[in-house]
Amino acid sequence: MKVSAILFDLDGTLLDTLEDLGGSMNNVLDRKGFPVHEIDEYRYFVGEGLSMLVKRALPANSSNAVCSDSLAAMRAEYNAHCRDNTAPYPGIPELLTKISNAGLKMTVLSNKPHAMTVSMVAGCFPEVTFDIVNGGRENVPLKPNPAGALEIARLLKIEPGQFVYLGDSKTDMETAVASGMYPVGALWGFRNAEELEKAGAKALVASPDELWKILEKSNYSIP
Predict the structure, then answer these.
(1) Cα–Cα distance between 47 and 171 in angstroms, integer?
(2) Is residue 106 within 8 Å of residue 124, measured between CB atoms?
(3) pTM of the model
């Protein structure tokens, strides 16, 4: 199948956001008198939206009121600090340039709130033109539900099977499989190879350049 488009996850795939996500949540926890977490622990808290991150970071059995209040506080905190330390992973800007020059469509699908996703992509990749950038929206189920990925395919009028889906988590691989896209796991992100393979990754790449080599070697085609 010829590749016509690439769908990218954002956190842990294009951008290293872990320090800002973890630092913001820890600030919220500290102000509320709750235990904070090591930044590395947030690798397993993120990926399914801010609401789930907050729930996982709070003490077990926190009330709905505490969860709701903490979510509002986290949104405000992260809005203020989402780009303090966040940056593209090494090799990502070069990969995006090569993909663009090859004439392939480039899209982003994140569970991060939509406005923040759009802002961060524009701020971190000012010279890159993505065809579609979508974050979490009220009318579209979050990943791993395939609705967001299928919407992108429909808007671009490209069959899902002509997409390579690059992500770093179980959530991403499950989304790719459910939508009929070709799942590739990014090993530089937040999760490990075992999780990605179990969730359905058909290829694993240790660097952005490895994805380009796969595309180039197969003349932009996949099995």
Answers:
(1) 7
(2) no
(3) 0.92
